[in-house]
Amino acid sequence: MSVIFTTAEDAEEAFYEAIGRGDLDALMNVWADDDEIVCIHPTGQRLTGPTAIRDSWRAIFANNPRLTVRVKASVRWKSVMLDVHSVVETIYLAGEATPRSPLLATNVFQRGANGWRLLSHHASAADDSAEAAGEAASARQRTLH
Q1: Which of 30, 89, 107, 123 is found 20 to 30 A from 49 (Cα to Cα)?
Q2: Does residue 21 lie in a domain region?
Q3: E strand map for 9-66
Q4: For position 134, which CATH number holds?
Q5: How many domains does the chain have?
Q6: Could you tell me if residue 103 is inside a domain?
Q7: Highest mean pLDDT (candidates 2-6, 60-64, 92-96, 128-132)
């Protein structure tokens, strides 16, 4: 049975926790049940649909079974049915004390009958100043009507 996420923030937290546990089923549970979901990893390849996205995360977990992702500097645009989050991700690989270069990510969530679900995750490499620049913007949130 699927978990119902009552907020987009709950869905986003579950997404990153699933990555940290290497839990493919929990990660895919966050995604919308839609053939048009999209995931773009920092390599730049666009993956469309649950099968392609599941296969890509399966490969990531097979090569890096323990990833920790710290998310900060979130800027959020909110509406009744759609939330867009722009975040800075800092990734730590298992056994490494030094994080990888930061990533900029955009997560798009949609509210439906089964709660909030992820429609799109787009991550790309950022320079080291992205984290600092994002912190200044993190205090700003805008509600769309």
Answers
A1: 89
A2: yes
A3: 38-40, 46-48
A4: 3.10.450.50
A5: 1
A6: yes
A7: 2-6
Q: Which of 72, 75, 106 is nearest to 89 (CA)?
A: 72
Per residue in 10-44, pLDDT (tens digit) is 999 999 999 999 999 999 999 999 999 999 999 88
Other beta carbons within 10 Å of 45 = 10
Three-state DSSP at 79 gives coil
Domain assignment of residue 114, given as a range: 8-143
pTM score of the predicted model: 0.85
With beta carbons less than 8 A apart as the criterion, state whether 136 and 86 touch. Answer: no
- Averaged pLDDT, 130-135: 48
Q: What SS3 state is found at 20? A: helix
Widest pairwise Cα distance in the chain: 45
Q: State the average pLDDT over residues 36-62.
A: 95
> Does residue 94 sit within a domain?
yes
Please measure the distance between the N-terminal and C-terminal CA atoms of the chain and give it in whole angstroms.
33
Could you tell me the CA-to-CA distances from 83 to 28, 109, 110, 142 in Å, in that order?
18, 5, 6, 10
If we measure between CA atoms, which residue out of 46, 55, 3, 69 comes closest to residue 24?
55
Token code pair at residue 21:
């546990």
pLDDT-above-90 percentage for the chain = 70
